[in-house]
Amino acid sequence: MTASGRRLSGTLDRLERRALVLVAAATALALLVLFYYPVATVFVEAVTVDGALSTDPIAEVLTDRFYLVDIFWFTAKQAALSTLASVALGLPGAWILARFDFPGRETLRSLTILPFVLPSIMVAIGFVAMFGQNGTLNQVLSFVGLGPVSLLYTLEAIVLAHAFYNAPLVTRITTAAWESVDARTVETARSLGANPTRAFLDVVVPQLLPAVLVGATLTFVFTFASFPIVLALGGFQLATVEVWIYKLVGELEYAEAAALAVVETALSLVLTYAYLQYEGRQRGAGQGAHPQPRHSLLPAFSSLGPDRSSVESVLTRLAVLGYGVVVAVVFLGPIVSMILASVTGPEGELTLRHYEFLLQRQATGASYQVKPLPAIQNSLLYALGTLLVALPMGVVMAVLTTRRFRGRKVIDALAMAPLAVSGIVVGLGMLRGLVFGIRIGDTRVQVVGTVAIVAAHAVAAYPFVTRNVAPLLGTLDSRFVESARSLGASRFRALLDVELPLVWAGVVAGAAFAFAISIGEFDATVILASGSGSYTMPVAVERFLGRRLGPATAMGCVLLVVTSLSFVVIERYGGQWGGDDV
Amino acid sequence: MAVSGVVTMSEIHLDSVSKRYGETTALVDVDLDVADGDFFTLVGPSGCGKTTTLRLVAGFESPTDGRVRFDDEEMAKVPPEARGVGVVFQNYALFPHMSVAENVGYGLRFTDPPEGESRSERVDQLLDLVDLGGMGDREPNQLSGGQQQRVALARALAPSPRLLLLDEPMSALDAQLRERLRMQIKEIQSELDITTLYVTHDQEEALAVSDRVAVMRDGRVEQVGTPRDIYRRPETRFVAEFVGDNNLFEGTMRELSVSADETKGYLVDVDSEEFRVAGDGRSEGLAVGDTVTFCVRPEQLRVGDGENRFTATVEGSEFLGETTRVHLDWKGRSVTLRTTDVPSGAVELGFDADDAWRVS
Q1: Cα–Cα 20 to 30 A to B282, which of A72, A236, A253, B28?
Q2: How many whole angstroms separate alpha carbon A527 and alpha carbon A426?
Q3: ipTM (interface predicted TM)
Q4: CA angle at residue A398 from A395 to A400, to 5 degrees?
Q5: Taking the domain B245-359, which CATH number applies?
Q6: Where does the chain cross the membrane (chain A) (predicted)?
């Protein structure tokens, strides 16, 4: 090797040695520019009037009866009701998944991940198709001589849609806890004289309760900040904070929107903090060494246990069956309704005209009109961009958060804050800052909407990469890395050669999550894409929904197909553990 | 079994090294010097700081105070990958996504094999060295524990490290395999003449393989010496009791000089019986009337023989195969005797002054 060659390789070595630090620094910078700066923009706007510091905008929000009662109280109320409904709908599912065996159990269990990849605007449109004036429900009711009922634009519709979204989450978290209950603890209670019910109440319930609470808190956090569902099913009459911010932005009332956003963010942060504190204390319950046995649901194989009477076993099966019907209606209903509505004409006849409309709009639509192809192209492009940004960010964060060092908790919290701050707020901040342009010295820095959208998606998506990769990294024996390093690998090389191959499934699942989140993201996109051609599929669905249900459902079906494809990837690579503790 | 590889001279020095994790202190002011080519063992109960010491040498941790040096080179700023250390862990930490050959060859991605050898030749050579020739294509999980351990050893040695660090490498194996493997490790070590730091909690293993042994306790080094010294001439009560069986007698110093030669011997009064104890050259600061402790190994006690005599009562015995361990009572103290003939009732026991060693 020549002297200059050696010098070059020496420089590369040094670069490689610093690679992890460099990527971490880039991640920090990206977070700063893409998340903290926009949020700060909103914050500054909320505490200044004409450039002078003032508490007036926030004070106005906090003292206004309309905001306090109609907006904040309603937001909290619908979140609380939605949480109750989600727990009520989710718990029986956990019981069935944890305690019974039946064909397709594993598939059903991994299907509970669906809420994370289903675009919320699609759920919303499914509910419109099901509960609307000419929706599936009213058609069924009129067929049996009842109806019509008007569920749209009611609190019930919002709560039901939220339950659709969050009940599987409750099911998933509780099932994991139930499966980790050690059968021997129950057997011990029985041997000490407790009957099955007492043993369940005294031994199993206390072990499930923390998981149920985690699921409920998470549901409350999510539904408190829910946007597209409330927008589509409640409109401005039943507006949550998010919807009202969106309305204010649309009316160019940025200062008021900012003030509202700050108050909402503060509340969300408190809720998320409470959740993380609680979740942190519940960690560590692994798979029980001896999980309780599952009963077969199929009568052919066995009864429900030696000590159960056949009456009881029949009742149990009936209960399971009843729950199955509810699940089918609530979960399949909206999606089937959406698909049906997309191929149904006004007289109830089968038709492809909605899809034809999309094709025609694509061929002849005016430039300001929403076309399907650009929406698909944009969605895929942004999703790809999101992957490129969110994957390295998420992986580096996972590496940092699984290591022990001083200040780790602070970094952890700062890095996970995007989970707690709504897309509306990030979108608003980006719009007001980078997209409208900021002045640095004499030059005006401006970012096009496309870049801002990818940035907002990446910020929303990378925590999911981290949450998929970090648990695997955490269980990885630190001696793998130490062995690699003692053999001459730099820290970065050890990450590439040893850690990443071993947690690859998590990286792939994280990538699928990031992809799906970008595809389905609505909150920030709808703000950043307003009035421009950078709309995505969900935004297109919403714009069609304002005028015609048919094309909106057709567009929704396109979205469903694309989303399903990314779900297949998640299921293929990460189904068995992906998101178990999301 | 000729394995080439330029192993440069390497000494390890720890200069008053301390290590604290927050409130807990893992190492206190540790001084150690490992000579070039030594098989040096750190032994002690769990939590004594032996693994921390190894991790400081490997560079996985940095000392809170003090210095780690290889020869004269200060290692504070040197990352693990630049230290030239081969590490074998208790669970072997074989990369599960790589074949056996890929595992062994991993370190060769960062360093050239010795002059005139290709990487694959080097890998084959190392696998031959640990008697695993032809196993290169296997996956680590297809191997037995002992085989995995040997792969880990080959992997550690492949880049010709200047030091070999072994962290309880055999504690997951069964006793027979352990004995075979430790002899193999010892043979390879002396053939390569590589400075080796070995961590174990098994004092028998420590005595069997080491050139020198450091007994550690509560983050401090209690004693450093040859296995023979550690066994025969323990300096502290802890070392005397930790390594092997021992009988400890506490008494009052009667005379500081009982022998005519330069090393002073002692006369110690234990419960109104006087015992002669070997001189150890450490009598400075001792005075007549001080409370002192000495120890006698169970196999050094003889029935009806020896300079010092006392009569004890047999309480029970354990048959160990080669010998029998007899438990006796002498004036309320328990005394242990190793013998092949099991006595009963009241027995006169004796030992020579040379076999009695004072501990502090």
Answers
A1: B28
A2: 10
A3: 0.76
A4: 110
A5: 2.40.50.140
A6: 20-39, 79-98, 110-131, 143-165, 208-234, 254-276, 318-343, 380-401, 413-435, 447-465, 502-529, 549-570
Nearest to A19 by CA among A491, A507, A503, A483: A491
Contacts of A467 (CB under 8 A, 6+ apart): A510, A579, A581, A582
Domain ranges (residues) in chain B: 12-234, 245-359
Per-residue pLDDT of chain A (582 residues; tens, 9 = 90+): 455 555 655 666 666 667 777 878 888 888 888 788 888 888 888 787 777 777 777 777 778 788 777 788 888 899 999 999 999 999 999 999 888 888 888 888 877 877 667 888 888 888 888 887 777 777 777 777 776 777 777 888 889 888 988 899 899 889 888 888 877 777 777 777 677 788 788 878 888 888 898 889 888 888 888 888 888 887 777 788 888 888 888 787 777 888 888 888 888 888 877 777 776 665 544 444 567 777 777 654 444 444 455 677 788 888 888 898 888 888 888 888 888 888 887 777 788 888 888 888 887 777 677 788 888 888 889 998 998 889 888 888 888 777 766 666 777 777 777 777 777 788 888 777 766 666 666 666 666 678 888 888 888 888 888 888 888 888 888 888 889 988 988 888 888 888 888 888 888 888 888 888 898 888 888 888 777 778 888 888 888 877 777 888 888 888 888 878 766 766 666 544 434 333
Q: Which of residues 489-508 of A touch B (CB under 8 A)?
A: 489-491, 493, 497-498, 501-502
Q: What residues of chain B lie within 8 A of the CB of A476, using their CB?
A: none
Does domain B12-234 fall under CATH 3.40.50.300? My reply is: yes
Q: Is B172 on the interface with A (CB under 8 A)?
A: no
Cβ within 8 Å, pair B80-A502: no
Domains of chain A: 39-284+291-298+309-342 (1.10.3720.10), 365-582 (1.10.3720.10)
Establish if A487 touches chain B: CB-CB under 8 angstroms: yes
Q: Does B85 touch chain A (CB under 8 A)?
A: yes
CA B337, CA B340: separation in Å to the nearest integer?
10
Listed in sequence order, the residues at least 6 apart from B152 whose beta carbon sits closer than 8 Å to its beta carbon are: A483, B88, B89, B92, B93, B94, B169
The alpha carbon of residue A161 is apart from the nearest alpha carbon of chain B, in Å, by 44
Q: Is A477's CB within 8 Å of B81's CB?
A: no
A64 Cβ under 8 Å from any chain B Cβ: no
Q: Are A171 and A94 in contact (CB under 8 A)?
A: yes
